[in-house]
TrEMBL record:
Pfam families: Peptidase_A8 (PF01252). It comes from the Bacteria. It catalyses: Release of signal peptides from bacterial membrane prolipoproteins. Hydrolyzes -Xaa-Yaa-Zaa-|-(S,diacylglyceryl)Cys-, in which Xaa is hydrophobic (preferably Leu), and Yaa (Ala or Ser) and Zaa (Gly or Ala) have small, neutral side chains. It is found in: Cell membrane. This is Lipoprotein signal peptidase. It comes from Spiroplasma diminutum CUAS-1. The keyword Transmembrane helix applies. Belongs to the peptidase A8 family. This protein specifically catalyzes the removal of signal peptides from prolipoproteins. InterPro entries: Peptidase_A8. Its main location: membrane. One of its GO terms (biological process) is proteolysis.
Length: 258
């Protein structure tokens, strides 16, 4: 058991969390999205005041309808506020853990959006006005106000907020990234089977790019003799990319490759 705990501690200590990248790029984005969501909710609460109040925003596309949702996304578990909050908290913690351990900058895009959306709605429950549910006054709900002003597969039956939108956009990003990854996996498999030398060069340069990314963004903000500037990082990354283009050009001209 002690060895197991020691291995976990050792792995965590040596794990490259790329915190520098997350502090510079990810956290500002998350904070911006959270603040934007809170501002939008505050504006709705202060101006619309009464639940059920509606206002046209973009006629035929989006309208506003003020509603306090005591449940989870799109009104799920509205009858059980405690369960809704518990699920929201667990999902938020889970997403934060994924965010902490994620090292792929492309997958971090949807994770950022999901963390922002989940966190904004969870904390938004603390200040949202109370609502009436089954004759009882209930607190801890979420301010929803965005509604589609058209009906496509029941789209106008849902009322949501910006935080919900961040999560939905994240799902879209995940689908796109998955298709892109599948495409490149197939492309690499074909390259490996038909052009082994090309694949080996590609794999080596790709490994260099990943190592460069993780090395630069894992380093602290304090400069030392091994540190490189952001300009040098971009320059080196471009050189790796140009090296691959040069190799491919040589292959096409028949001077290298198979």
């Amino acid at each position: 058991m002690q060895d197991f705990i020691f291995n976990i501690k050792s792995n965590l200590k040596n794990y490259n969390f790329i915190f520098k990248y997350k502090l510079v790029w990810c956290l500002p984005l998350i904070l911006f999205l959270v603040v934007l969501d809170w501002i939008s909710k505050a504006i709705v609460v202060s101006n619309m005041k009464i639940e059920g109040t509606t206002a046209k925003f973009i006629p035929g596309f989006i309208e506003f309808e003020y509603k306090i949702n005591p449940g989870a996304a799109y009104g799920m578990n509205a009858e059980n506020k405690g369960l809704a909050i518990s699920i929201a908290a667990l999902v938020t913690v889970f997403l934060i853990l994924i965010f902490v351990f994620m090292k792929n900058k492309y997958w971090l895009i949807p994770i950022n959006l999901m963390v922002a959306g989940s966190f904004a709605n969870l904390l938004g429950r603390a200040w949202a006005p109370s609502t009436l549910l089954n004759g009882k006054i209930v607190k801890g709900g979420v301010v929803d106000f965005i509604k589609f002003d058209f009906n496509f597969l029941g789209s106008n039956s849902y009322i949501f907020n910006l935080a919900d939108a961040w999560v939905s956009i994240a799902v879209g990003f995940i689908i796109v990234i998955m298709f892109v990854y599948i495409y490149f996996e197939i492309k690499e498999a074909i390259m490996k089977s038909k052009h082994q030398e090309d694949f080996e060069v590609y794999a080596e340069l790709r490994a260099k790019q990943i190592l460069l990314f993780e090395t630069y963004w894992s380093s602290s903000f304090k400069k030392n003799e091994n540190s490189i500037t952001y300009k040098q990082y971009l320059k080196t990354n471009k050189e790796i990319h140009n090296e691959w283009k040069k190799f491919k050009k040589g292959v096409n001209n028949g001077t290298s490759g198979n």
